[in-house]
Each structure stands twice: as structure tokens, then as C-alpha cells.
């Protein structure tokens, strides 16, 4: 066992964060201010998500941490090790085996269940921030449900690019009331925001927590004549052949050669283990170098 | 023609108080009495400075009265609320002054059509009427799209008159309508006045041109009677 | 007829100094009221109190709302006041930069109020924006340009379009022609007169320019040191001023 309190934070802090989480679940999409603590990683590296996870973890939990869908990037590994050390919880790379999943900028492909919690790392929680820099104004706009400005942003996109150009952090309306920034997940993931799992959003630097309770109604904003499309690259995964998962584009040589692979590493590996093949599977064993910490 | 007077004035008094010149009080009118019946044209006469224009402006509500009654139609202008006077000027009482005051840049056609447009007349009809009047008053068509601010004095006067006659006002105030006009246009204006009389308008006019006055006016009122210090 | 706006005893003080004192008037549909006075007269304070930008100390501002009839705006909740400000009321600032979003295209600026009250069809919103740009004489091909690319006069006309797109019944204007070239002023005045007539607008216009007031306003209030010293028909107040201060003001105007 470590010298740290369970999951690093002291009990009073965890209680404070849990109160904020309960409030957030009671008012879906509303940004609840909380007293963000100093964490052993700098702002911009997931302190909000880590604090929310720390407040939610119990010793029986099985934790998965992903960063842009991958379990094996530096940040995912580092946060997972942090909780192994301070909470002693079991960790896993398999989505369906995890009870709590902390994620940066993606939702796992595999549908989540009612027994799971998804914790998002959020950089800027305020969806109106880039249109209205004043916090006093944005708070008023949320409380008075004055959201004309969000549609102005979408209008500007269409006027400039012929279509809504926002491709990630696409704003949504929650339960017909609050407009929310779902964190920088690709818009392809927006439909998955309606889920059986509990979804919690933590912004450490901005000191806000917000939440989506299970089966919450989440609608992506659009115009009647420019409806929302959850789009992705028009390819299949070159390793497992999936045509329905969100893909990463990888440049493989100096000539501009590229391959497309599932961003969700666990999803891809599970499919490959089940025998699915992609375009590049036939050219020999292809590893993604994934560690499987069971 | 005749019957109940359209314009009726009684006991009308006016002073000017110049606060910035030691509060000097200048009485300019006392106990003025006047009436104009529908279809009648009455001329105001008197020496320059006797108060002809003053009286006309008071009837229009442009000058305030000290005391007395200025009845135009059903309204006592001397006691009326501003919006009542605004409505009166729009529907009932027309005024052709000696000066043309317009918003710069507005084309002549729109200047003349303005009284009809503010009454809600459809734009094409209002412009037709404007064209008709401008044609009769010999304003060349090439000037219709220009602002009258650049016109000669006589042209401006004719635009002024066209605007004044665009709507069939039941009461009309005309201040020197034939001034600076040549014989042909003078004739047109006098015809317009006669047409207005024929449809029952009550007209009050100031004419320096005695021949014009004799032609269209039924009566003459000498305002010198009402001017303090000048009364015989 | 019910007045569109009834102001009763409106007073605003800045500590011991009077901003505006005991101002009362009625405004009817289709009427334009001018408020003139020199710097420090209280005219801008009055306008801002009327529009709800400043909190008055006492008095009532009763507006004839569409849904509930005459209601004291000062007694309304903030959401109600803000809704009013987006729909039935409009405010044209002296400096168009205060009334526009400089980082948003002209079309977006005009369409914002429509989107704020629920418009969700891009094509329709853009169509209405084009229509209004045309009405304020801004070329349609400028619809995607930012206001930073417009001249001062164009910015002001854009501000007017942005305000009038939801068909408000009452417009507040603070020195709408201040800071514009004379010829540009003329064009703007012409436009405002036309819109007032076509849309049956009522307006309260604050200005120090008597020529603007003569052309645009039916009625006039003259303010000095926070008090209304004279009120009446515009042409009557300017041609037959009764109060000493008004006489001074009128006689001080330079003739071109």
C-alpha cells in the first residue's frame, strides 16, 4: 500500500467533488464550479479528469485510461500508473472489463453499460467562450437560455465553408435546456453521448464539473437545412477492416503513403483477435505495440 | 358652400418673451378673430410685420398662443396635445410656407409624394399623383429624381406647392403661393386653388399679388386690427 | 389610444449630482421623440435609464407589451427585460462598434436576433439578412464581410439593420449620426425617416444636433442640468421657443 490517501486526494476534497458531481448529474449540462486542487501534473494534462476519477474510485474498481482512443500513449500510461500507485486498483485495457474509464478526447467504440462510469478530460468547458469572452455574460446566457450566439457560430461556418466546419467539440443541447461542450471528442462520437453509462466531465484549470446522467437526451445543434452529420474518414480500418469506427490517419513513409487504423486500440485488437482482417493484415504481422495490463 | 366654419379663431393673443434680452415682452397679437368656411378662400392682408405669417403659423401649431381658441375642424389647436396636432397636419390641415425644408438627398418625386405616403397611400399611386402635379407645375421630368435642394428659388417654390396640394386637405394655409412664379405657373397655382375651393377646402392665404388675391379670394381680413400698437 | 411608452417621474442621481430629475412623458405608436441638450444635460442618462442600461432611482417606465398590455419595465425580471430588448425594443449606439459583433460577418450580425428567438433555417435566415442589407443600402455581396471592413456609415447602417430585423416597436437611438460625415448623415437620416414611416416605429432619439431633430423628430424635449425645461412639437419648440435656455440654444446654431 502507498503513503498516499486512497486515490491521492484527502477525504474532504473527495467529498466536495462528489457534491459537485451530484449537483452536475441533477442539472445535466450545467457547469458546476468546484475548488480544483493542485495535482502532481500541470494544468492541461488532465487534472480535472484525474480529480473526478479520484473522487469516484473505490478499491473494487477496474480502471481503464485512454488518450485519443489509445491505452498506450505516454499520458494514458502515466495516469494509469498514478492510480495504480495511489489507489492500488486493478487496471485493464479492455473496455468491457472496465468499471471506470478516464478518457481524453474520445468515446470508446464499444457501447457502455449501466455499470460503467466515463470520465472526460475537458480543456475549456464553456461552449460560448470563443464567441463571448466575458464570463459574466456567458453565465447570464446560460441562466437565461440565450443561445442565439451558438447558432451564429454555426451560421458563420456555413457562410465561410459551405457547411458546418466544426469537427470536434461540437456543441450539444442537453435535455432541451443547457448547451454543453462535450470536450474535444470528434463529432463522430456525439451520438454516443446518449448512453446507459454515467458520464462525468472535469475541467481542472477552469474549475468546472458537468455531467450527463444515463439515457440523458443530447442533441447536436444544427440548422434545419444543414442537419448534423456524424462523419468520419471514408475508409475502413487497415488492420481490422471495421467500416464503422473512427479512424486515425498514419503517414508511413516519405512518399506520403498512409494507413488508416482504428483510433480505439482496444476495439481494433478485440476485432483482430476475433479474426477480422483489414487491407494491411495480409502483409505480415502488424503490431501496434499495445501493452495489455490486466 | 358654407355652413359651419372649418377654421375658427377667437380671442387669440400672442406675446414673444425674449429671456436673453432682459426678458423683453413683445406683444404681437391681441384678440384676433377669424373664420373660414368650407369652399371659401380668405386673404390675410396688412403691412409687413403686422402678423400675417404669425397668425398662419399659430393656426398650424408652429407658434404657441397666449390665449384664445384656434378651432380647425373639431380640434382646438391652441389646447391640443402634440399628437393631435401631428394627426391634424397629416390628415386635415395643409401648409405651404415660403420655404422648402427637406431632408437632403431625397428625390423631388418622393418629396411631393411624402404627404400621401404618410397617410398610407400605396407608393405607386402616391408617385402618380406627384408626377401629375409636377407636370402641371412645369418641373421638367429630368429633375424629378434629383433633390430639390439644388433647384432655383422658383422651382423650389413649385415643388413646395406640389407637396402642399398632393393630398386633398380640407383646410389649407398658403403663404405667398405665387411669389417668384412666372405668369404661366402663377396661372397653374391659381387653378389649383380654385380646384381646392371647388371640392370644399377652406383656404387661408397671404397674397402680395393683388390680382391673384382678387381672383381667388372671397374675403379679405386685415390683421392690422389685431396688432397691438398698430391698430387704428 | 394607449401610449406605447409612459414615463413617470424618472429620476437618476449620481451621489449628490442629478443625472435626470422627474422626467415624465407619453409616447404613442409612430411618434419620434427627440431629446436635445448640451453635454451634461442628462439626456444620455435619461436614454440609458429608459432602455434599462442604467438603474433609475425612482419612477416608472410603462411599456405596452404585446402579451400583457402596459407593464412597468422597471418592475420586470431580468429575463423578461432582456427578451424585450431582443424583440420589441432596439438600441442604436452612437458608436456602431458598441452595437455590432465585429468578429462576426454582416449576415451573422443581422441574423443573430433571429437565431436568438428560435430561427433554425439557414437559408431563410440568410434571405432575411440579404433583404435587410438591401433596405439599409448595403450591397448584398458584402454579406459575408466583417464590419471591420466597412466604413463608419456602413457600420451604422448595419447596426440599424441588426436592430430592426425582428420588427421592434420602439427604437432608442443615441446620437445616431454623431461622428459621421455630413453627406453620410443625410443618407442615414433619410433611411431612418423611411423606416420609421414604413414600420410604424416609435423612437426616442438623443442628440445635440438640432438639424437632426428637426428632420427626424415629431416632438422634442429640451434638457438642461438634468431637467426637462421645455417640451412640445419639434417645429414649435425650435421656431417659438418659450424657455430662456431653448431660445439660447436655438439662436446659437451656426447657419451653413
Explain what you see.
The complex is a heterotrimer of chains A (294), B (232) and C (256). With 294 residues, chain A is an alpha/beta fold. Chain A has 6 helices and 12 strands. Chain A has helices spanning 11-26, 47-56, 74-87, 135-143, 148-161, 265-273; strands at residues 32-33, 62-67, 90-91, 100-104, 117-121, 172-174, 178-180, 198-203, 208-212, 218-220, 247-251, 258-262. Chain B has helices at 52-60, 82-91, 108-117, 123-136, 153-166, 183-198, 210-216; strands at residues 7-18, 24-36, 41-45, 67-72, 75-76, 93-96, 171-175, 202-206, 219-222. The mean pLDDT of chain B is 91. Helices cover 34% and strands 24% of the residues of chain B. The longest helix of chain B has 16 residues, at 183-198. In chain B, a hairpin with a 5-residue loop joins strand 1 and strand 2 (24-36). Helices cover 39% and strands 26% of the residues of chain C. Chain C is an alpha/beta fold and 256 residues long. The mean pLDDT of chain C is 91. Chains in contact: A-C, B-C. Chain A binds chain C through residues 144, 146-149, 151-152, 155-156, 158-160, 223-226, and chain C through 78-79, 82, 86, 101, 104-105, 107-108, 111-113, 115-117, 120-123, 125-126, 143-144.
Primary descriptors:
heterotrimer, A: alpha/beta, seven-stranded mixed β-sheet, 24% helix, disordered C terminus, B: 232 residues, five-stranded parallel β-sheet, 9 strands
Strand content of chain A: 15-25%
SSE order of chain A, one letter for each helix or strand: HEHEHEEEHHEEEEEEEH
Radius of gyration of chain C: 18 Å
The average pLDDT value of chain C, as a whole number, equals 91
Q: Please state roughly what percent of the residues of chain C sit in beta strands, choosing from under 5%, 5-15%, 15-25%, 25-35%, 35-45% or over 45%.
A: 25-35%
> How many beta-strand segments of chain A?
12
The helix/strand class of chain C is alpha/beta
Shape, per Cα inertia axes of chain A: globular
Q: What distance separates the N and C termini of chain A?
A: 19 Å
Give the neighbour order of strands across the main sheet of chain A: 1-9-8-5-4-2-3
Approximate helicity band of chain C: 25-40%
- What is the total tally of β strands of chain C? 10
**What is the mean predicted local confidence, pLDDT of chain A?**
92
Q: Which pair has the most extensive contact?
A: B-C, 21 and 25 residues
Q: Treating each run of at least 4 consecutive H or I residues as one helix, how many helices of chain A? A: 6
- SSE string of chain C, helix = H, strand = E? EEEHEEHEHHHHEHEHEEHH
Oligomer: heterotrimer
- Fraction of helical residues of chain A: 10-25%
Number of helices of chain C: 10
* Low-pLDDT windows of residues of chain C: none
